[in-house]
Amino acid sequence: MWIDTEADLKALYGTVGEASVLKETTSLTPEYRALIAASPFCVLATVGPEGLDATPRGDAPGFVDVLDERTLVMPDRRGNNRIDSLRNVVRDPRVGLLFLVPGVNETLRLNGTARISADPALLGRYAVDGKIPVTALVITITEVFFQCARALHRSALWDAARHRSRRELPSAGDMLKGASAGQAGGAEYDNGLEERHKQTLY
């Protein structure tokens, strides 16, 4: 049985709890600001003509800078130059962010619109080791709320006893080799990966 209407969904799930409505705001409360300041990792979701994209973003805690209660700045750190998210933003400004704080089971969900800045004065504020990001996302918040802890409780995400050894799963070289039908990747790719990461973080 397929569910194709909001009415069908409501019949299955019932009424939204009062707290789930009251926790949503259009600007950052001091408590929501504290979560962003403590977060070293978030997922950035964007949408464009080709479809959706979700990408991990991370740096030292507070790497997403709070300018005011409705404005954030996210420096675009060095990557692979696919710029999928940035290409989406220039065509559709809608963004969503999910912030995680290690050891904390509540997460923070934020929706808004973004523009890409190449302003040297702004970018200079986010230099690391003398290296300035090429651009930064300036995000205007439209809604923000915390997500309850059930998903992270169920996943036991922060439980070290449940963590997997990296060696149990395909390496980056293995995945690249498989996806490229052997044109790239493999042991040669893996052998220099850690050093490449060190040299290209910023």
UniProtKB/TrEMBL annotation:
| A Pfam family reported for this protein in Swiss-Prot or TrEMBL | PNPOx_N
Query: Domain Pyridoxamine 5'-phosphate oxidase N-terminal: where?
Result: 28-148
Q: Where is this region: Disordered?
A: 169-190
Q: What is this protein called?
A: Pyridoxamine 5'-phosphate oxidase family protein
The species this protein belongs to is Phreatobacter aquaticus
